[in-house]
Design goal:
Elements (H helix, E strand, L loop, with lengths): L2 H20 L5 H25 L4 H27 L5 H4 L2 H22 L3 H11 L1
Helix pairs in contact: 1-2, 2-3, 3-5
């Protein structure tokens, strides 16, 4: 995927999440879940931008893993908002976009690992060769 397109998609996801959180009912639980979602949902794009400025392949991979974690966490908070009845699933409709972002991030990590030869199997064999 094109870097600029991915940046736009993650920013759009953050903006959509922001609007949804603003529309949540005023209750303690909805507030807590909304705050968690806004933190993780806006962090996806910020961390992707940081990954784009990575200093090495290992640095980029580490930052992309954060993107993956934040996107997965966002999916979790969305599930809780839906299952707790605070927001109808039809209104949230961000699950597919979030899952696509996770899938693309994982694919990018795997590609970088293969290119760099830094998969855990290769890392382990490199360590064994040093002994």
């Amino acid at each position: 995927m094109d870097e600029n397109l991915f940046k736009r998609r993650t920013k759009q996801l953050a903006l959509r999440i922001s609007k949804i959180v603003e529309g949540l009912p005023k209750s303690r639980t909805a507030d807590v879940l909304g705050r968690q979602l806004i933190r993780s949902g806006t962090s996806i794009g910020a961390n992707y931008r940081a990954a784009c400025r990575g200093k090495s392949t290992a640095d980029v991979i580490a930052k992309l893993r954060i993107v993956e974690e934040e996107a997965d966490e966002s999916a979790y908070w969305m599930e809780l908002l839906i299952e707790s009845g605070f927001i109808p699933e039809a209104r949230l409709n961000l699950s597919q976009e979030t899952n696509e972002i996770i899938a693309m991030t994982v694919a990018s990590i795997r590609t970088l690992q293969k290119r760099d030869g830094s998969s855990s199997v290769n890392r382990q064999s490199k360590i064994e060769n040093l002994k």
